[in-house]
Amino acid sequence: MSNFSNVCAETYHETSATRASAFWNLFSAVVREIRIRRALREVSTLDDALLQDIGLTPGGIEDAIRHGRGR
Asked: Under 8 Å CB-to-CB from 65, ≥6 apart: which residues?
């Protein structure tokens, strides 16, 4: 084995905590995406006048939900 492969084998050690953390990150991302899509469906049912009242345009709904409105 080369010196490089020895270093890689020694430095890469996946623990159960690392796997649990990766699983938790994936789970959190899925839950966040579900919430975003639910909010998108709800807000997209509003008419243009109501969107204008809250400072949104139909084209800016997704950006506002995903990233918040500018201050």
From this structure: 36, 39, 40, 43
**Contact status, residue 40 vs residue 66, Cβ threshold 8 Å:** no
pLDDT per position as a tens digit, 7-55? 555 555 667 888 889 999 999 999 999 999 999 999 999 999 999 999 9
Whole-prediction pTM: 0.67
* Angle 22-28-31 from CA coordinates, rounded to 5°: 145
Residue 6, amino acid = N
Question: What is the number of other CB atoms lying within 10 angstroms of the CB of residue 65?
Answer: 19
